[in-house]
Amino acid sequence: MRAVVIADETDREGGYVTERLRQLGADVEFVDREALPDRAEIADAGPRVDLLLLLGSHRSAHDSRFVHDVMAESDWVRDSLAAGTPVMGICFGAQLMARALGGHSYRMAEPEVGWERVDSVDHVLCPVGPWGQFHHDTFVPPQNAQVLGSTWYGPQCFVEETHGARAIAWQFHPEVVPEVYAQWVSEGKMTVRAAEADAENLVRGAHRLAPQARTRAFALVDAALDYLGVEGGSNLS
After folding, report:
1. Phi and psi at residue 160, in whole multiples of 5°?
2. DSSP E strand stretches across the chain
3. Most exposed of 23, 30, 70, 93 (fewest Cβ within 10 Å)?
4. How far is 213 from 69, CA to CA, in rounded Å?
5. Residue 123: how many CA atoms within 13 Å on its side-chain side?
6. 162: which strand partners?
7. pLDDT tens by residue, 148-176
8. Quick check: is 117 in a domain?
9. Tens of pLDDT, residues 224-233
10. Quick check: is 97 in a domain?
11. Which domain holds residue 224?
């Protein structure tokens, strides 16, 4: 299984998600979204891409400063699905996927921060959690998408099938490990204050919930690979 992961150059933290992919035998290849190469070069660089994974970002998908990069990544999402390659997105990746498939993203009045449970209509592809949250943006899902989970702040999971290929996106962070969450809290002091959250409690929660979070994330990756129809996925476990 070959998984191409698009991430910020300074934040290649696939955490529990890429850990599980590697456990399942995946060759995980990172691509920096700050300098996306020509998509044809990626397609021709090796074996078929079995999964495209979009990680989070410090950016906003609707920020005009990043419009050219967002358009390039959105093209990659659409081209991948058209070629039959399934796509998975997390946080910014979910917002970008929503935009690429006809929805949009926007800044919320206040950030969603902490370890929260989600309301779900599919406890396999969108378990209730609790899941790590750390974002100030949200999205309106594409018209043809099926929303599987939400919180008071907005949608938390959607799935869509197009050109015979499937996509799944989560607004929450199944991948985040305690050390990375602590880094977000440290670097995002303004976000923490805007959410009226306690930084120490957030970090303590990340460490306390880590064993459960890892188990939940692994199960979620397995379920998502089954849904996406990724060959050589969870059947290797």
Report:
1. -155, 145
2. 2-7, 27-32, 51-54, 87-90, 104-116, 119-120, 131-140, 146-151, 154-162, 165-170
3. 23
4. 32
5. 4
6. 165
7. 999 999 999 999 998 889 999 999 999 99
8. no
9. 999 999 975 5
10. yes
11. 2-110+122-127+134-175+213-229
